[in-house]
Prior knowledge:
- The chain contains 21 helices and eleven strands.
- The protein has helices spanning about 20-35, 55-65, 90-100, 110-125, 140-150, 195-205, 220-230, 260-265, 270-280, 295-300, 315-325, 330-345, 350-355, 355-365, 375-385, 390-400, 400-415, 420-435, 440-450, 460-465, 465-480, and strands spanning about 5-10, 40, 105-110, 155, 165-170, 170-175, 185, 210-215, 235-240, 245, 310.
- The longest helix has 16 residues, at about 20-35.
Amino acid sequence: xxxxxxxxxxxxxxxxxxxxxxxxxxxxxxxxxxxxxxxxxxxxxxxxxxxxxxxxxxxxxxxxxxxxxxxxxxxxxxxxxxxxxxxxxxxxxxxxxxxxxxxxxxxxxxxxxxxxxxxxxxxxxxxxxxxxxxxxxxxxxxxxxxxxxxxxxxxxxxxxxxxxxxxxxxxxxxxxxxxxxxxxxxxxxxxxxxxxxxxxxxxxxxxxxxxxxxxxxxxxxxxxxxxxxxxxxxxxxxxxxxxxxxxxxxxxxxxxxxxxxxxxxxxxxxxxxxxxxxxxxxxxxxxxxxxxxxxxxxxxxxxxxxxxxxxxxxxxxxxxxxxxxxxxxxxxxxxxxxxxxxxxxxxxxxxxxxxxxxxxxxxxxxxxxxxxxxxxxxxxxxxxxxxxxxxxxxxxxxxxxxxxxxxxxxxxxxxxxxxxxxxxxxxxxxxxxxxxxxxxxxxxxxxxxxxxxxxxxxxxxxxxxxxxxxxxxxxxxxxxxxxx
Length: 484
């Protein structure tokens, strides 16, 4: 019987969750569900200066919002608690003593300036920068003198000779020659443990079978394998995901726009759409692009994860959002959008109660253009305000359209029942009397009553605005003084 798959997502609560972090969490989650394994959430909060309880709680809330519920971790517990590194100090100290007993570590007193000078010299010679082992040669007496003089030290792990081979589930065999890795730091000068040390202890004790993470951690893997072997633990299988890139091919960062999950949640993207899009950044499912979490879990396989970096495309994300927005029941969608209308001061809660059916009609008219909830603001402003703004070129164009707009006025004034059918009948009659059709007929009307070059069907827009409002907006261009 094969062992149960156990994977983990181990973020640091030092800021908002990055898109790359979330894709890593998603791939771990769907792999756990695909294999009927266990998904562990562990908080790596050993960075005392940057880690905060607020960031930690936000992180957990975002995971819940996305539906990536964890089987073990904070708030739910589990057999290998605690799941916060800040609460596991005694465990790390115990393992550190085991390495000391085997003489596999030594104190290093080199200053930052000395290390930087050594690094520059190695680069100048065309060598890979690594620690040269200066302090490994110190005698016990020399170390005692340095300690007595108040010199601070870090603890370094002694790297044995020999090539290190990593069998990566995504990248295949990756070899690390022994001349690339110098003795590395296990504890800082304040005695706090480093990432490479704590992550090995936690993954080993929590019986993690697969470590699925970003390729920026690939260079850490040989160091971690050495620690596993030194402590007598079996290393897990590793899978390193390609980075997410911006349109310029560089690693996705703030210069490319929004990169935190919180910002997309605030915009009102549906979590299902958001995760569906992120899943496609590095993985090509066989059953199409639109997939629920359950469908992703059924199909996901690490062997089908790509090695090359995927481009994050906000336009494609918006398109994905549109596919999910279209599936929502109109009543539910309208109620979900009300807070955005309130925040934009488009209407009050009382007005929303009184005109809910009308607002529902507005939402139904524009929903096909919406990829997230906040789109409702830019898509509906002309329904809630007659203060339309025009570019100078648009104003000049509309001045030449006065005869056509006057014809529209007369046709609309004659309508008794101002519904979509009668509205379009008046538009077609205007076309016949003016000899115009297509864009020449429709564009001036759309611009006059909505202030937009494009938008939903006028047959829906006109009746929603109402006869009086349509005539009022046309009058702006047909009266004597046309706005500049």
